[in-house]
Amino acid sequence: MNAKKQIVDFVVGRNIPLGENFVQLHLYSPDGLPETKPGQFVQIQIPSSIHGWLRIPISIHDADTGKGELKLLVQKVGEGSRWIASCKEGEKLNLILPLGKGFSWPEISLRHEMEDPRHANDRALLVGGGCGLAPLYYLARCLKADGMPFDILVGARSKDRLVLANELAQLGPTGICTEDGSVGIKGLVTDHPLWKGVAYSHVYTCGPTPMMKAVAVEAKKLGARCEVSLENTMACGLGACLCCVTPSAQGHNVCVCTEGPVFDAEELGW
Ligand SMILES: Cc1cc2nc3c(=O)[nH]c(=O)nc-3n(C[C@H](O)[C@H](O)[C@H](O)COP(=O)(O)OP(=O)(O)OC[C@H]3O[C@@H](n4cnc5c(N)ncnc54)[C@H](O)[C@@H]3O)c2cc1C
Ligand code: FES
């Protein structure tokens, strides 16, 4: 069951630049954190002079409930994200969290106790690029803690646009694809040999929509369950304005901020 949404004032503990376009924010709440899941997001309040009353949705990149610690990865694209990325140590950020539905995976802890043969060969592939790697990092950490084996594939246009590859490699085997071949395999994430060599049971992806669509096609060929995390433009983030809807496979609209942002790829009308 999802934790109740809270409005929390966080203090910026660290702001770490990652290349030219990203920062990693370490936030602390003296009052602690609600339980969160990988794939869920926060809505950040920014000055009304930038987006009016609208907050900005950002994925939970990592969380430690006990310590009241939350990490975010922010890509500087427009005025709002640039403002968040400019926050300095000691400044306050007001967040609503946790929002949306996160990734799911078989309860491996149960599998180890009961030796459920249905999950005996489970192995996941996590595929992402850019700020899509933010929720996948948190997912990788949780899968590792839960004993679910996995590989990671990171895609970027070129070496200088890569983020989080070293951090992810500390959690599990990590392959890299760059479009110009400046590091790793030359090509798209779907060109990586891992797709041919391993029978994945689960594929998780977050990043640009064309990449996620291509990943969903490859996952289907393997017969793997594929979960995609959408980053549709949002306003309220709470299911009230319906500006985030996307077509489902059945032809009706689904609300990305409350029914997602994580969906089984088969549920979507792609
Ligand atoms: C559920 C969810 C999770 C997200 N997680 C992250 C995250 O972890 N880290 C992160 O950096 N960003 C994340 N985003 C995207 C982030 O919310 C947008 O980049 C931000 O709202 C842009 O606001 P802005 O004022 O900086 O730019 P704007 O001035 O609003 O837009 C500047 C440019 O960015 C484009 N843009 C705006 N929103 C998006 C979007 N959602 N996706 C792609 N392009 C967009 C606009 O079309 C425009 O070209 C997430 C979005 C969603 C919906
Ligand atoms: S952003 Fe308002 S309903 Fe989803």
Walk me through this protein's architecture.
With 270 residues, the protein is of the alpha/beta class. The chain contains 8 helices and 16 strands. The chain has helices at residues 48-51, 79-85, 108-114, 133-146, 165-169, 194-197, 209-222, 256-259, and strands at residues 6-18, 22-28, 41-44, 56-59, 62-64, 69-75, 92-99, 124-129, 150-156, 174-178, 185-186, 202-206, 225-229, 246-247, 253-254, 262-264. The strands form 3 sheets. A 7-stranded antiparallel sheet has the order 4-3-7-1-2-6-5. Strand 12 (202-206), helix 7 and strand 13 (225-229) form a beta-alpha-beta unit. The longest helix is centred in the middle third of the chain and has 14 residues, at 133-146. The radius of gyration is 18 Å and the shape is globular. The relative contact order is 0.14. Bound molecules: flavin-adenine dinucleotide and FE2/S2 (inorganic) cluster.
